[in-house]
Structure formats: C-alpha cells, structure tokens
Amino acid sequence: MAGRRQRHVVDSPLPAAARVHSTLSSTDKAPTMRGGMEKSFFWGVTLDATHKDHKWEGAATESTVDCTVTTHTLSVRQVVLGATAKEGEANVVELEVLGYNDKKVKIPICVSKTGGSYVTNVDILIEDQTATFHLTKGSGPVYISGTHQTETNIIGEDDMDDAEEEGEDEEEDEEVEDSPPKKKTKK
Predict the structure, then answer these.
(1) What is the dihedral of CA 76, 82, 83, 88, to 10 degrees?
(2) Nearest-CA neighbor of 141 among 89, 76, 96, 77?
(3) Global pTM?
(4) pLDDT tens-digit profile of 95-111?
(5) Where are the beta strands (DSSP E) in the chain?
(6) Is the pLDDT of residue 21 over 60?
(7) Which residues contact 86 (CB under 8 A, 6 or more apart)?
C-alpha cells in the first residue's frame, strides 16, 4: 500500500529583515566563510513508550566570537511505524511549535496503526525555532526522519552593502533637488 502524503509548513517567528543572505564571490575562498555556508544533515528520532517526546532546538544562533549567525531548518519527510508496534493500536504523532504572533500550535502530523501503511510521507518545514514532537497516543515505535539544514552567514555583511547603496541613492536625490528647474522655451 502506498504511503500517504500530508503537507504542513511552520513559518519562522523571525521577521524577514532579521535573516541574512549572501553568496560567495568568485574571489572568495570557501574556508574564509565570506558568504553563506550551507550544510545538510540527516535527522531522525524515535518515539516510543519510554521516549514519548523529543524537543528539536532549531532557533537561530549567533556567535559573537566569529561574528556569524547560523539559521536552522528542519524538513521532516517521513514517519514510519515500527514493525514491533502493537496490533490494532493507533499511534498519533503531534507537533508543537510557536505560530503567528507567538501563539502555541499543537497539531497531529501523523496517525497510523498496524494493518495499514507503515510509511507516511509528510512535508513539514520548521525554520529557526524550537519544535517538540509528541507521541500522544500509542506506544510506537514511530520513526521520524528528514533533513536538518544550517546556513551560516557573517553578521552585517549584507547590511553594510545595503547601507552603502542607500547612501549613494540619497546623494543622487540631493543632486537632483539642488539643480535649478529647467525653463521652458517658447517656439
């Protein structure tokens, strides 16, 4: 039986302006970390009768020593019911996050039991925040897997470029305002 597909997206509580994006130029060397450095890692967790909760610490981190900000994204792709799950027992996995306006959101992301499909494909994206997975019903085991992606950027690199551009724009505006108005010629 084919796996079911469910889609959930969890937005970051950080405003878009708080995120720093940049790219490597052709003259930068990768080890110097001039621009954004992305890394992806396999991520997985098992929920069962003895471990019913798992907290993912995905909040953005700042290093004042390296002058960098590291953002975290968790992309959950699959929930698998273990072969040793109790016959006929429903297993419910719930996700708890902070939503819009810091409102706590708790929602089931998967319900499965033996006799049905053991694999459920999901599409859950969690950016720059803490999330907790709960096995609210059943004893599992339930295996949750996906990708943990990090992006590290130097603080202020893009901000400085933006400030320079704004300064140039202001200078151009002043030049236009200082010039006298052109007189119309009569024909």
Answers:
(1) -110
(2) 89
(3) 0.65
(4) 999 999 999 999 999 99
(5) 4-10, 37-47, 53-57, 61-63, 68-81, 91-98, 104-112, 119-127, 130-137, 142-154
(6) no
(7) 114, 138, 139
